[in-house]
Amino acid sequence: MPASAAVAPALVGLDLIRTLVAFDTTSRESNLALIDWVRDYLAGHGIDSQLTFDDAQRKANLFATLPARDGNATAGGIVLSGHTDVVPVDGQPWETPPFTATLVEDKLYGRGVADMKSFSAIGLAFVPEFLRRGLKRPLHFSLSYDEEVGCIGVRRLIADIVKRKVRPSGCIVGEPTEMRLVVAHKGKKSYRCRVRGHEAHSSLTPRGVNAVQIACEIVSFLTRMARRFRDRGGFDAAFDVPYTTVHTGVIRGGTALNIVPRDCVFDFEFRHLPFDDPDALLAEVRRFAATLTPEMHAVDPSTHIEFEQLSAMPGLDTHGGNEIAELGMACAGTRDFGKVSFGTEASLFHNADISTIVCGPGHIDQAHQPNEWIAIEQLARCEDFMRRLADRVCVA
Ligand SMILES: [Zn+2]
Prior knowledge:
about 400 residues, alpha+beta, 11 helices, elongated, binds zinc ion
């Protein structure tokens, strides 16, 4: 008998995972159908939800509180946090329907099974148990929109709970860590650089300003920065990539080989260790760019190099020594903890004075891939985590 036949039916959360995966919540789509479903599910257990919307009212965050047995719904307790959106499946070779969670032997396939609907679904599946056993402190659920496009939605949710004076003492973000405790992650800042040169016939290059070549000089500077971090640090060996990385991902410029190009645009990012300052890194790039402009201005004073920030996600490092880390270690059944290179919503909760760790089922390598999958064993471990959590946060 395959493992799944024995194990999968014992999973409390499997039906809920199937339900959440069935909603196409690709970031560009509305997530309201999923949010409405969860709101109705919680209402069925007597729990109200607070929604915060995006400007177009097409997407919402959901925040819901299971009050403590004494009625306390605001002071202390923890948040179980997940994002509802998933990355696109366009152009990916899927062998199963991506929005149907499909069990094949010991793996469950579907968009979002690892990143990160399973964690949210399993948490929600334990609502009846949390309520039946009664809570010592409130337990909150946070479901956000637009995480995959820069952790946009959760900022409104956090602002709303701060305004309503809901004061959780800790938060667990269930991004895929293979149920290992993550107490730190890198920060990220991304930028667009626009180089405006001066067009000329390519037989007359000295009369033009070649925007592509200027851009490439800056890209090369970024490459040298990346090598410097790789070779000289600073380092934190607890990270899978133990130094700050610098990367240029997109470049566009020029129109034809016989024209000195007027425009070139490229996007780059710093994924920095929590102790490195991305603003100082950008200042370094700006100083280099400034050394290129006198030669440009000598040909045409209207030429220029501009930088625009595209996104910002702070780093997180709790060093593993606080109350939520202790709770996480107890529930995960191990005192090991690690640090990861991908950013999460954890740093935004942390910056709102809510101590936060990351711990969820599945492996980040499966996230964003065609045929995204999660091992049934990971789902079982997540359910064990929730049971141990219930043992600690419940009265009975
Ligand atoms: Zn995620």
